[in-house]
Amino acid sequence: EAGVAQSPRYKIIEKRQSVAFWCNPISGHATLYWYQQILGQGPKLLIQFQNNGVVDDSQLPKDRFSAERLKGVDSTLKIQPAKLEDSAVYLCASSLGGQGGDTQYFGPGTRLTVL
Amino acid sequence: GIQVEQSPPDLILQEGANSTLRCNFSDSVNNLQWFHQNPWGQLINLFYIPSGTKQNGRLSATTVATERYSLLYISSSQTTDSGVYFCAVGASWGKLQFGAGTQVVVTP
């Protein structure tokens, strides 16, 4: 069974530029998560989708971050414009879904450096 | 939100040693997971354990939900066990709050 796929693996941009990350979850997983992990910290949830609907985006900086999950499968996370403090690893995870939560499986992440 | 505290923050072990990692949380949860982040950054799910005890090879975990803590046991540690161990908890559907992690280094 294929795991969670993410691309690109690395991205370097200058501040005020825009960037997009892509995630393809494990086949059949209804729930998809985007996390931000700053160096030395645990991951922080940015947004959670159930199929193609948003369940939680309370920690998403909506003035610059956006995410979508069209057709309830793969997802894109965008930052526009990027700031220096957005330098982090962006992790995508998926789970089968369901009340009470399920085991989450993580992709390899995208390491973003904002100069 | 729920506060998650992990201890110790750092742990250095000699190969073959046993260790216990602890996770305390501030409120009732219905979701608790342990993860291992390897030196290349990949997060691997070790256990989904909101209560009770589970074992998987040299690893085992126990969660005492009524006392709001969970323990991860590593026995006969190997160098491949090095990395950061995260405890993550949730009170609502799917959403997880991660602790700061325990950095484990296993020396040959």
Provide an overview of this structure.
The complex is a heterodimer of chains A (115) and B (108). Chain A contains no helices and 11 strands. In chain A, the strands form 2 sheets. In chain A, strands 2, 4, 5, 6, 9, 10 and 11 form a 7-stranded mixed beta sheet that branches. Chain A has a 4-stranded antiparallel beta sheet with strand order 1-3-8-7, with no helix packed on it. With 108 residues, chain B is an all-beta fold. Chain B has one domain: Immunoglobulin-like (Sandwich). In chain B, the strands form 2 sheets. In chain B, strands 2, 4, 5, 9, 10 and 11 form a 6-stranded mixed beta sheet that branches. In chain B, strands 1-3-8-7-6 form a 5-stranded antiparallel beta sheet, with no helix packed on it. Chain B is globular, with a radius of gyration of 13 Å. Classes of the chains: A mainly beta (115), B mainly beta (108).
* Overall pLDDT metric of chain B: 95
Oligomer classification: heterodimer
Helix content of chain A: under 10%
Proportion of residues in extended strands of chain A:
over 45%
Largest sheet report of chain B: 6 strands, mixed
Largest interface by Cβ-Cβ < 8 Å = A-B, 27 and 24 residues
H and E order of chain A: EEEEEEEEEEE
Helices and strands of chain B, in N-to-C order? EEEEEEEEEEE
Specify the CATH architecture of chain B: Sandwich
Task: Give the CATH topology of chain B.
Answer: Immunoglobulin-like
* Secondary structure: helix percent of chain B: under 10%
Separation of the first and last Cα atoms of chain A:
37 Å
- Main sheet makeup of chain A: 7 strands, mixed
Mean pLDDT of chain A: 93
- Note poorly predicted spans of chain A: none
Instruction: Supply Rg of chain A.
Output: 13 Å
> Total helix count of chain B?
0
Using the alpha-carbon principal axes, give the shape of chain B: globular
Number of strands of chain A: 11
